[in-house]
Amino acid sequence: MNIVVMIKQVPATDKVKMDEATGTMIRDGVASELNPLDLYAVEEAVRIKERLGDVTISVLSMGPQKAAEAIRSAIALGCDKGFLLSDKKFAGSDTWATAYTLSTAIRKVSPEADLVLCGERATDGETGQVGPEVGAYLEMPILTYVSRIEEIGDGRIKAHRAVEGGHEVVESSLPALVSVVKEINEPRMPNLKGKMQAKRTEVPVLSAEDIDADDSRLGLKGSPTRVVKIFRPQLARRGTIVSAQPDADAAVEGVVDFLIQRGAL
Amino acid sequence: MTKQNANQTKAVWTLGEVRNGQIHTVSYELLAWGRGLADDLGVELVSVILGSGIKDQAQALIHRGADRVLVVDHPELEHFTVDPFAEVLTALIEEHRPDVFLASATSQGRTIMPVLAVKVGAGLTADCTELSIDPEEKLLIQSRPAVGGNIMATIKTPTLRPQMSTVRPKSKRPLPIDTDRQGEIVVKEFSQDKLASRVKRIDFIAEDTIGAPIQDAEVIVAVGKGLRDAKHLPMIEELVSLLGGSVGASRRAIDQGWISYSHQIGLSGKTVSPRLYIACGISGAVQHLAGIQSAETIVAINSDPDAPIFGVADYGLVGDLFEIVPLLTEKIRQRNKEAE
Questions:
Q1: CA distances for B144 relative to A228, B9, B158, angstroms
Q2: Mutation test of the interface with chain A: which of B80, B100, B118, B200, choosing the one with the most A Cβ atoms within 10 A?
Q3: Same domain? A124 vs A13
Q4: Contact (CB<8Å) A224/B275
Q5: For the segment B200-257, what is each residue's pLDDT rounded down to a tens digit?
Q6: Residue of A104, A175, A37 lying closest to B118 (CA atoms)
């Protein structure tokens, strides 16, 4: 069985700086990590391999050269090989162009993929769109919000999806695209052997040309959406602030009067 | 197919959502957004609804603001699965090419919309909390939080149509029901072979939740790190049951394991819009505040006068929640008695 895990390198903090002119994140000089929600996809792939034995796990990511670190950290956890999509032409991609690029690369490096796994969303962009978009490009059945893979093999998958109000149990043919949620497993820590393996593994860098991509669909110019402005959210209200010291009773009396007057009770 | 004007009339479309055979209220929230956009553009508001045995409910969408409802009613569409929904919606979008197409940022909407974006070749913006029309360019202006709510981004789709967005549930209240509103209900037929699905739903395991789901609650008393220990929850629950609401929690309280994830409020949990929100011992991280923006009245109780939660409160009490909450419960109970 061939599994492709799509991952993303993200800023290691949520206090990222933005370039207010272009509306993009400033990634230089910011510590990076493998998107925490992708760890669940990596872990699930490794568990499937441990269960079934004859499984090859390829990790795929699009990003700057240093995103190879994120791929190596997935290899350290038990994935077999990795590919980094890195090309100036990819810069400024929205989810649509990103999904086009990733799916084109999957056709190239793992045309026999039985399972394409990804996390629910990345912690920086937080769209959760790239996974299902890749599934649509590859014309695969799409299973999102998967919280448990009950059975997999023989061209079939049986899984649980965490949706509003409960869990849906579904069955699908393979190949399929599966996005997983936190609930699915507890990701392991890398061991020494894994780290050594990761160090030794070459991560080939693929350009637009390497994957025979249509240039008009790449990067900013291939992206239908445009970030036109970024701003800090303004959430302020102008309320009454009262200290409960020394007279808590009077303070609470005050809030009750306020709520009654406002019709909030 | 019903006869439809072949001229691709400009329109705003919303995707209705059916859960357990019933039109879900998120469909009406979307219509409230859509109504404003359609009026600003001077175009028709159309709601599209897919399901099984739902024809008779379509009128409710008109009463909530739609000018027209497109209904696809078929046993194969009883539960949401990607393949038949994508097939039907792609065909409808390609036939009419609306200007704007909105769906809720629910598990259904967040799954089907990316697929449609690829199939119809249009851009998609995730999880919008604010939508409007640019008065000059007549383009849809989509705003959404990113990076844990620290940033809001405004996004446009300049050329491709429809301009598609998923919209955060509870980011707007539904319009009141207006039974005098008139509109057209159009039933669209699809042949069985278009409705096959490679994914089959074989079971549903319902979650046991006590009380109303947090996102539907009219009153929420929420706890944060200031609660210090799960053993103090009964004090909160007493106030909650008096007010007839639900208990909410910040991420910090969830991470402590005091209460289950389904109670989490904020960007990584649920967005809520209750009539009354009482925050107890919640400092007010941006990611939490982004989830309570549309609450009607916010009361904050915190011992730290500099806590950011006071910046969004309509009424703030600086002090010890273990003193204030029981007092509040007692006084409200007293007032209720006096009112009887």
A1: 12, 28, 17
A2: B118
A3: yes
A4: no
A5: 999 999 876 545 678 888 899 999 999 999 999 999 999 999 998 899 999 999 888 8
A6: A104
pLDDT, chain A, mean? 93
Which chain A residue lies closest to B19 (C-alpha atoms)?
A164
Q: What ipTM goes with this model?
A: 0.89
In a domain, A69, yes or no: yes
Question: Under an 8 A CB cutoff, do B123 and A170 touch?
Answer: no
Which of A183, A217, A235 should one mutate to test binding to chain B, selecting the residue with the greatest count of B CBs within 10 A?
A235
What's chain B's length in residues? 340
Residues in chain B with CB shorter than 8 Å from the CB of A251 are: 317, 319, 324
User: How many independent structural domains does chain A possess?
Assistant: 2
Q: Which two tokens stand for residue B320?
A: 């010890």
At A196, list the tokens.
Answer: 């050594």
Q: Is A54 on the interface with B (CB under 8 A)?
A: no
Say if A232 falls within a structural domain: no
**Common-topology check for domains B11-195 and B214-339:** yes
Angle at B268 between CA A62 and CA B212, to 5 degrees: 145
Give pTM, 2 decimals. 0.84
Q: Are residues A247 and A176 in the same domain?
A: no
B315-318 and B297-302 strand pairing: parallel
Query: What are residue B18's DSSP bridge partners?
Result: B23
Residue A121 lies in a domain: yes
CB contact under 8 A, B201 and A168: yes
Quick one: which H or E segment has residue B74?
Answer: none
Question: Which residues lie below 8 Å from residue A152, measured CB to CB, with a gap of 6+?
Answer: A48, A52, A115, A158, A174
Across the interface, of A18, A94, A242, the residue whose CB is closest to B317 is A242
Closest CB from B106, B125, B205 relative to A167: B205
If one looks up domain B214-339 in CATH, what number appears? 3.40.50.1220
Residues A31 and A143 in one domain: yes
End-to-end CA distance of chain B, in Å?
59
